[in-house]
Specification:
This protein has about 675 residues and is mostly helical. The chain folds into two domains: about 375 residues, no CATH class; about 160 residues, Rossmann fold (3-Layer(aba) Sandwich), CATH 3.40.50. About 70% of the residues lie in helices and about 5% in strands. A hairpin with a 3-residue loop joins strand 4 and strand 5. The longest helix is centred in the N-terminal third of the chain and has 72 residues. The radius of gyration is 31 Å and the shape is elongated.
C-alpha cells in the first residue's frame, strides 16, 4: 500500500509538475515572442530612421557643397567662357570632351571624333577613349541628349550637379560603412558630420569638379561599404550574391573613372593578402574579391581598347603571380607609367634624379609629404584624437589576434578569444588595415590624403559607437555592466556631436552667406582673342595647364596637355617647355615647328616664377635637365655648365632680329604673350 500510495502520489505530482512545466514553457514562449516581436519592430524602426537620416545627410551635403561652389564663383551669373576657365588644368581638358560630344551632330560622330582625335595632340591622331578615363563624360553627354531637360537645364549644370550628386552617394556610403561596423546609425551620423566640417581635407570637389578622383571616390566608398557587409558572417546565399554584385559594379565603375585605380586596388589587395595570411578573413570571400578586382580591370582594359598600362599593371601582376607578370610586362614593353616609378624612387631616397618628369612631380606640393597643419586641422575637430585612440586599441587587438592565429597553443586562443575575436570581426579587420595602408599613402603623398581622411571619419566614429570596444575597456578597469556599456556607447558620441554643432555650425552658416565672384580678366581676354583672331585649325603650344583651357574654350589644336600618362606626350612636353629654358631662338623654333605649332603662349607667372624655391621652379628643372647652371644665388652641381644662350622667354621680349625672324608678337596683356611662328623653315 505504501509503495502503491507512493506511486500514486508520484504520478499525481508528476502530472501536476508536468502541467506546471508546460504552462511555464508556454508562458516563456509568449514572453520570448513578445520580446522578439519588440526587437523586430525596433529593428525595423531603427533601419527606417537610420536609412532616412543617411539619405538626408547625403543630400544636404551635396546641396551644401553646390551652394559653396555657387557662392565662391557666382557661377550662375558669369559668362560661359568664365565658367569654362574655372575648370583649371586637366579639369578643363576632361570637360572639353563632354562639350565635344554634345556639339557633335550625332552620338556616333561624337564617338568617331574621340576615337580618331587629332586636336588634342598636334600632328597625331590618338584614341581619347583608350588614353584617358572619360567614359563618364561620354555617358553624361548621351544622357543629356536623350533626357527632356535641354530647355531648362544647361549642359554645364547637368554636369556639375551630377558630380555634386555623387557626393551625396559618397557621404551616404561612409555613413553606411560606419553603421555596419558599429551597429548603430549614430556612428554614421558622426562620420558624415566629421566629413563635412573637415571638408578642406576630405574633398576638393567644390573647386576641381571634373577631376577624376571626384568621379571615382564615391564608387570606392560604396565598394568599401559592400565589402564590409560581405565580410559579415552567416550571410544568406542570395544576400551574399547581391553583395558580391554590388562589390563588382562599384569596383568596375571605380576602375573606369580614374587612371590611378590600379594603384589603389593594389593596396586593397595587399590588405586582403595580409589579413588572409593571418586567418582574419574567410579565404573564399577573399578569393572572390581578387577575382572581382581582376575582372573589373580587364573589362576596363577592353573598354579602353586594351590599354597597355592596365594590362601590365602591378595589380594584375600581384593577383596573378610575380613570375608571370614579369614576363607579361616585359612582353608589353611598358613605358606609360614609368614616370611614376622614377618619381617614387627619387621620393623615397633611392638616389637623386635629374629626370624632368620625376622632378616635376617632386616639386609639386600635392605630391609632397603630408603637411603637419593637416593634422592640426583634423585635431581641431577632435577627429584626429578620436581616430588615434580607436586606432591604437584596434592595432593592439589585431596584434593579439594575429599572434593567437599564428600560435599552435590552444591556451592562448582560449585566453584571448573572449576579448579580441569579437572586436576584430572580419569587416573590422579589413577596415583597420585599409585605414593603416591608406594613411601611409597619405603621409607620403599629400594628394592621396582624400582617400584616408574620409575613412578616418568612418573609423573614428565606429570606435566611439562600438559595443565591443567599450565592453573591453570597461572590463579592463573592472567597471563593466551592460547598462554602463550602452551609456558610454551612446552618450559620448552624442556629446561630441553636440560639441561639434555648437563649435562649427555658426561658421558653416556664415560660410554659406559669403558671396564672391570669379575674376580672371587676363585669361578671359586671351581666350576671346584666340577665338576671334586665329584660324580654327591653328595649333597652340604652351604650358599644359593653360592649353587645357585653350582646348575647352576655343577648340583649337594643342601640342601638349595635362594628361601625363603617355611617354611620347611627356617627351613632347619637355621639348615644348624649352620656351622657358636657355635655348637659342633657332632651336626653339625648330622644336615647335616639329609639332606643327602656329602660335606659342608665354606666361610671365612661369618665366619669372616665385612660387617655388630655387631648384623647383620650372626653369630650374629645365636647366638641370639640360645640364645648365640655375639662375640666382645658390649651389649648383659641379658638372652643370653655364648656358651659351639667354633664357628664351625673357630674351624674346626684347624683339631682337634673331628672334623676330622666327616669332612675331600678336597678343599681349599683363599675364600672357602670344607669338606667331614664321612660316619659313
Amino acid at each position: 500500500m505504501t509503495t502503491i500510495r507512493q506511486r500514486k502520489e508520484i504520478k499525481i505530482a508528476e502530472v501536476y509538475e508536468d502541467n506546471a512545466s508546460q504552462e511555464e514553457e508556454e508562458e516563456l514562449e509568449r514572453q520570448l515572442l513578445t520580446v522578439y516581436s519588440g526587437k523586430g519592430l525596433w529593428k525595423i524602426l531603427s533601419l527606417t530612421v537610420g536609412g532616412t537620416i543617411g539619405l538626408c545627410i547625403g543630400f544636404l551635403t551635396s546641396v551644401y557643397l553646390a551652394t559653396l561652389h555657387e557662392n565662391d564663383l557666382w557661377f550662375s551669373n558669369i559668362k560661359e567662357v568664365e565658367r569654362e576657365i574655372s575648370f583649371r588644368t586637366e579639369c578643363g581638358l576632361y570637360y572639353s570632351y563632354y562639350k565635344q560630344m554634345l556639339q557633335a551632330p550625332t552620338i556616333s560622330k561624337g564617338f568617331h571624333g574621340l576615337i580618331y582625335d587629332n586636336k588634342t595632340e598636334s600632328m597625331r591622331t590618338i584614341n581619347i577613349l583608350e588614353r584617358m578615363n572619360i567614359y563618364q563624360e561620354v555617358f553624361l553627354s548621351i544622357l543629356y541628349r536623350v533626357l527632356p531637360i535641354q530647355t531648362y537645364l544647361e549642359p554645364v549644370y547637368f554636369y556639375i550637379y551630377t558630380l555634386f550628386g555623387l557626393q551625396a552617394m559618397y557621404v551616404t556610403a561612409l555613413y553606411v560603412t560606419s553603421w555596419l561596423l558599429s551597429g548603430t546609425w549614430l556612428s554614421g551620423l558622426l562620420a558624415a558630420f566629421w566629413y563635412v566640417i573637415n571638408r578642406i581635407d576630405t574633398t576638393r570637389v567644390e573647386f576641381t569638379i571634373p577631376l577624376r578622383e571626384n568621379w571615382a571616390l564615391p564608387f570606392f566608398a560604396v565598394q568599401i561599404a559592400a565589402i564590409t557587409y560581405l565580410l559579415k558572417p552567416h550571410l544568406q546565399p542570395l544576400c551574399e550574391k547581391l553583395t558580391l554584385l554590388a562589390v563588382f559594379i562599384s569596383t568596375f565603375l571605380f576602375s573606369l573613372t580614374w587612371q590611378f585605380n590600379q594603384f589603389m586596388m593594389l593596396m586593397q589587395s595587399l590588405v586582403l593578402f595580409i589579413l588572409d595570411c593571418l586567418n582574419m578573413l574567410p579565404t573564399t570571400k577573399v578569393t572572390w574579391l581578387y577575382v572581382i578586382q581582376v575582372t573589373s580591370l580587364l573589362l576596363v582594359c577592353v573598354l579602353q581598347f586594351f590599354n597597355s598600362m592596365i594590362l601590365g599593371s602591378l595589380l594584375i601582376s600581384f593577383n596573378f603571380s610575380v613570375l608571370i607578370a614579369r614576363t607579361f610586362q616585359q612582353f608589353l614593353n611598358l613605358k606609360s607609367d614609368e614616370h611614376i616609378f622614377k618619381f617614387l624612387k627619387a621620393k623615397f631616397g633611392f638616389g637623386a634624379t635629374r629626370d624632368f618628369d620625376a622632378n616635376l612631380y617632386l616639386c609639386e606640393e600635392a605630391f609632397g609629404l603630408l603637411p603637419f597643419n593637416t593634422l592640426e586641422r583634423l585635431s581641431h575637430t577632435l577627429l584626429f584624437y578620436v581616430y588615434m585612440f580607436v586606432l591604437s586599441i584596434m592595432v593592439i587587438m589585431a596584434i593579439v589576434v594575429a599572434l593567437r592565429n599564428l600560435s599552435d597553443s590552444t591556451n592562448v586562443q582560449y585566453l584571448h578569444k573572449g576579448r579580441c575575436t569579437i572586436i576584430l570581426k572580419p569587416g573590422t579587420a579589413y577596415n583597420l588595415m585599409h585605414s593603416i595602408l591608406f594613411g601611409c599613402l597619405a603621409f607620403s603623398t599629400m594628394r592621396m590624403k582624400y582617400l584616408w581622411t574620409s575613412h578616418m571619419c568612418v573609423f573614428a566614429s565606429f570606435g566611439l559607437c562600438s559595443s565591443d570596444i567599450w565592453e573591453l575597456l570597461l572590463k579592463l578597469v573592472h567597471l563593466y555592466t551592460p547598462k554602463r556599456m550602452k551609456m558610454m556607447k551612446y552618450s559620448i558620441p552624442v556629446l561630441i556631436l553636440i560639441y561639434l554643432c555648437y563649435k562649427f555650425w555658426p561658421g558653416m552658416m556664415a560660410e554659406l552667406s559669403e558671396l564672391r565672384e570669379f575674376y580672371d580678366p587676363d585669361t578671359v581676354e586671351l581666350m576671346n582673342w584666340i577665338k576671334s583672331n586665329t584660324p580654327k585649325k591653328a595649333v597652340f603650344a604652351g604650358s599644359m595647364q593653360l592649353l587645357a583651357g585653350v582646348k575647352l574654350c576655343t577648340g583649337r589644336t594643342l601640342t601638349n596637355h595635362p594628361h601625363y600618362e603617355d611617354k611620347g606626350l611627356r617627351e613632347r612636353t619637355k621639348e615644348v617647355y624649352q620656351i622657358y629654358a636657355k635655348r637659342s631662338p633657332e632651336e626653339v623654333y625648330s622644336l615647335l615647328k616639329s609639332f606643327g605649332t602656329d602660335y606659342v603662349i608665354l606666361e610671365d607667372s612661369i618665366c619669372y616664377e616665385r612660387r617655388h624655391s630655387r631648384g623647383c621652379r620650372l626653369r630650374d628643372l629645365l636647366d638641370i635637365a639640360n645640364g645648365h647652371v640655375m639662375d640666382g644665388p645658390g649651389e649648383n652641381d659641379p658638372d652643370l655648365k653655364p648656358a651659351k644662350h639667354p633664357r628664351f622667354c625673357e630674351e624674346i621680349k626684347r624683339n631682337l632680329p634673331s628672334y623676330s625672324a622666327h616669332f612675331t608678337r600678336v597678343f599681349q596683356n599683363k599675364t600672357f604673350h602670344v607669338y606667331k611662328l614664321s612660316r619659313h623653315k
